From TrEMBL:
Localization (cell): Cell membrane
Residues spanning the signal sequence: none
Entry keyword Transmembrane helix: yes
Similarity annotation: Belongs to the binding-protein-dependent transport system permease family. CysTW subfamily.
Residue ranges constituting the ABC transmembrane type-1 domain according to the UniProt record: 13-207
Protein's name in the database: ABC transporter permease
Organism: Brevibacillus antibioticus
Bilayer topology term: Multi-pass membrane protein
GO BP annotations listed: D-methionine transmembrane transport
Coiled coil segments of this chain: none
């Protein structure tokens, strides 16, 4: 593999990391708000509002039902409005964030629901406010499950960047299609696949390490 192709692979990796980082951050922020809202507004929740919970759940399911490649196309005008273009890694962040947020919201919702109802009732019994229960009981208790879920979500976003590369988002996915597939360069195609696999493995290892650290700290103080 010549130096030019090495530079292309390096540039593709940097673009992929750029998209994964910012898309994960924005999707996590949106997904956390949606996931917490779903839990606290459900029937019997801290801020019970079944109608609101149902509306949010319906919207989430609607977005999740769309194939990602179609969602990207639908969001091209929004990307153009927000960042001034519909091409490139920055534009892709808009679609990636919106596409991944509902998936993360459901993961976060399920993680929060794993918290024992007894612990929430204990917090209520001492007069804790809903916000205190959410941020000092619910989220801390669900943290290991949340980290595992978010790790899965980030891996999903990494896979989405490869799909986004098919319509001009850049990154390793675009490189694999333009230089690997369309120009019949098997070496480039294999190299990009290996880099994506390694990236996913690093993300998974990082998530597992954080979970182990949380459990170690928790058991130490208990």
């Amino acid at each position: 593999m010549n130096a030019d192709l090495f530079d292309l692979l390096w540039q593709g990796l940097l673009e992929t990391l750029y998209m994964v980082f910012w898309s994960s951050l924005f999707a996590l922020l949106i997904g956390m708000v949606l996931g917490i809202t779903l839990v606290v507004t459900e029937k019997g929740g801290l801020l019970e509002s079944p109608k609101l919970s149902k509306v949010i759940g319906t919207i989430i399911n609607g977005v999740r039902s769309l194939p990602f490649i179609i969602l990207i196309v639908l969001l091209l005008p929004l990307s153009r409005l927000m960042v001034g273009t519909s091409l490139g890694p920055t534009a892709a962040i808009v679609s990636l964030s919106i596409g991944a947020a509902p998936f993360l919201a459901r993961i976060i919702e399920n993680s929060l629901k794993e918290v024992s109802a007894g612990k929430l009732e204990a917090a209520k019994s001492v007069g804790a406010s809903p916000s205190t229960i959410i941020f000092r009981v619910l989220i801390p208790e669900a943290m290991p499950a949340l980290v595992r879920g978010v790790t899965i979500g980030i891996i999903g976003i990494t896979e989405f960047t490869a799909v986004a590369g098919a319509i001009g988002a850049g990154g390793l996915g675009s490189l694999a299609i333009r230089f690997g597939y369309q120009r019949f360069r098997e070496d480039v195609l294999i190299a990009t696949v290996i880099m994506i696999i390694l990236l996913v493995q690093i993300i998974q290892w990082s998530g597992d390490s954080i979970v182990k650290a949380i459990y170690k700290k928790r058991y130490k103080f208990e």
